[in-house]
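Sanity check

After download, print the first record. It should look like this:
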Amino acid sequence: MTGSGTHRDGEGLAGLGPAIILVEPQLSENIGMVARAMANFGLSDLRLVKPRDGWPTGGGLPKGAHQAASGAVHILHGAKLFGDTRAAMADLNLVFATTARSRGQMKRVFTPAEMMPDVASRVAAGQCVGILFGRERTGLENEDISLADAIVTFPVNPQFASLNLAQAVLLMGYEWFRAAHGDIVPAPVEAQVPAPREMVVSLFDYLEDELDKGGFFPPDKREIMARNLRDILHRLTMSEQDCRTLRGAVHALAEGRKRRAKDGPPPRGDAVPP
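Expected structure tokens:
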């Protein structure tokens, strides 16, 4: 199968599809093999978050990446570099995190076969979807997973659930291709377009900051409670208007608290103010 059956005439089916986001990948060879897996299934949007060995932005490729890509170097040349996970997903409407463990987070969990028909429908409707892949040795951290809408995991042997990075991308690409071009007919998307990730994360920051000021979080439980709140909001699949409405509601509550702190509590019952 290596190289056989490849048509070198024409541009193929590359262009659309979910973004593949590699969070702190360690080896340039693995990045090259990911590019090859993406090209197999018509994916082209590769995003790199703080590669351990860096990534050139002005031409040339790291040693090993070119050879491992095996003809998919155009994807490597088009890769986008980001300083953190939030920036890499800022323009996306929907994000999935790949992990074999829920890590205590109350998120919806899908297999690739379950999620990809919906992803194909959303992409066809003009929405931007991304899939997070973690570090080769340790996977995604809790903070990365908390920024995603849901978890996607592979049905593998539970006694040996770890997958090579390129293998994970390959399996995800296969299910994407089947849903977008194969024997699965995507269902139409009737829901509102989810808000861009930048707007959703900004709402998280604003809500958590106001809750901090109001003394909502116990110091020893702040991190896990904040993640749980994010998961609750993720399950709403918020539109831009949803984010604006919730932000306005939090702002009104915060302003009310400030007025009460300044003027004292309002009169109660039939009491007549002086």
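If your output differs, re-run the checksum step. Summary of this record's structure: The two ends are 87 Å apart (CA to CA).
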